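User: Predict the complex.
Assistant: Input components as received:
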Amino acid sequence: MLHIAVVGSGPSGVYAAQSLVQQDEVPGVRVDVLDRLPCPYGLVRYGVAPDHEKIKSLQNNLRTVLEHERVRFLGGVEVGPAGLPAARLRELYHAVVYCVGAAADRRLGVPGEDLAGSHSATDFVSWYSAHPDAVENGFVNGVESAVVIGVGNVAVDVARMLARGQAELRPTDMPQSALGVLADSRVREVHMVGRRGPSQARFTTKELRELGSLPDTEVLVDPAELALDPAYADPAGLPGPVRRNIEVMRGWAERPERGLPRRIRLRFFLRPVEVAGAAGRVSGVRFERTVPDGRGGVTGTGRYEDLPAQLVLRSVGYRGVPLDGLPFDPDRGTVPHVAGRVMRGGVAVPGAYVAGWIKRGPTGVIGTNRPCAKETVRSLLDDAPALRRRTAADDPLAALRRAGLRPVEWTGWQAIERAEAELGRSMGRGPVKIPDWEGLLGAARGTAGAR
Ligand code: NAP
């Protein structure tokens, strides 16, 4: 019998658990899925935008895995020096699969990026998603014009959330405080800016198209910036997803401005060089105009454009962070591995595996994690004879408790779900997320307070 710890209960962790219990090659594998948070589902709960109910409903599929008879959810357990040291974790289980994602955001590396009013998109997302570590920064208070730097799906998410009104946000599970702030928003102009051309934008067509269906909002594209992209003149030869993006943007570029209350301006060939400030607060962003270099990149032109903004959201991708006791590739922000086996100096670290963003970097959609986790589990099952020879605790949960940890088990999570449904009911809304540690742990343990 193998007892495996999966660290992280986002899609990659849950798909890893699923692959481990839904096979009969190595029968009877048991899996504990540990998470730092008392709540499962990772970025499906704390990253997918609240208005994307269909994607969020994926939680129902993930739930069936976490409710499997040989899978156990143990929330509120932080692996690392502050909680459960990785070395101790390795003693408790035959193997550990790290599925911890990419917890940090990439930096722009330009002056002014830490001015008040300049935030990473991930901070903004965490706030409206009720992540218990999120900080209320006012975000949109006093903001009329916002600049979103980057043209990936996260940029599209935050631009869309900035343009949404109370009527569309109220049916979501977003916390009441964030709903109030966004409902009072005076944001009229959102500039979403790419440093390269429209054919190199990373957003997907479905997400892009959705911007065009927002009430009271129009999407504006400068035809001259589209035409600057060499791919624009001959879209027929482009891969389907890129061609479809171009077609959507062409439609917007050809449409006359309608004077709607809110505008999302898609801009291209602008490289951020400075976040400008006045009196310690963001006042805009200075960009250098770029042109295609013929090799997929761009070169600067020495000409600049300033966009006024009271809010800057840097949406330039996530980054993995080093993990206690594991090797790390600082250039890629990932753990070195071969087919999911963690490698140190060209040698596999016994009993250590990775899946998801910490393995392959922060790319792909949720479904990409399924084959990724499968590959890792394949490696683990191949190693099963050696893993069986490793020692493991008979009862890891008892050992965790003896170490002073108080894991939130599945019943605790179900209590959080009930408390969120009740909170929503009390405000005439559907389930509403509890946004703080105290509230979550209080609900999970049937007590108020006690972190
Ligand atoms: P992303 O797709 O990697 O996009 C990052 C963007 O930032 C790119 O446009 C990139 O431009 C730009 N960028 C990077 N460094 C920059 C710099 N120094 N200055 C200016 N721009 C810079 O990352 P993401 O949007 O964070 O998304 C992460 C992953 O989550 C993606 O796989 C995404 O599809 C997925 N996701 C999916 C959904 C959905 O399916 N609805 C929603 C959210 C996220 P270059 O291309 O020029 O580097």
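The pocket of NAP is lined by residues 108, 149-155, 157, 194-196, 200, 202, 207, 272, 315-318, 362-365 (CB under 6 Å).
Let me know if you want any component modeled separately.
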